[in-house]
Design goal:
Elements (H helix, E strand, L loop, with lengths): L2 H13 L9 E4 L2 E4 L6 H7 L2 H8 L18 E5 L5 E4 L3 E2 L7 E2 L8 E6 L6 E6 L5 E6 L9 E4 L4 E5 H7 L2
Antiparallel strand pairs: 1-2, 3-4, 3-11, 5-6, 6-10, 7-8, 8-9, 9-10
Length: 171
Amino acid sequence: MTKKSGYIFVLLILASCSSSGQEQKIKTGNTEHMYYIQKSDEEWKSELTDDEYRVLIQCGTELPGTGKYNNFYKKGKYYCAACGQLLFDSGTKYSSGSGWPSFFDVISDSSVVLIEDRSHGMVRTEVRCSDCGGHLGHVFNDGPEPTGLRYCINSVSMKFVEEEEANNKDK
């Protein structure tokens, strides 16, 4: 490996979603996003379960078919497990057969940040919570109408609240 290709490799590793911890400031295209909620790794570790920390902060994933919301269809809303921001409504959830909970739309475009993810030899679009930067999953262009999108989200990244309680919570 040449010195130049070594630098490029290191830059690619740093740019990808890594297990070394969460970035508090990210660059997406020509814009930079600063997360409203910023905490140290020690703070996140004390507030999250081991699985939540691994997925939300270290950009891990659940094994397909293992998440508690994969085959779950109660009416309500889904919130970020790290910070509580509203992310998805159950009316946009559908069975994609992917092994992860899937939604065809977010509650608001401002609730998530989309980031190009070139990790694991693929080019995908990562989905993060716009308030805390927690890794939620990825979005793909193979979903149903009306959006044609499939937000493929880790169950452990979300907390579900049933419809009546969620309506009271969001007032």
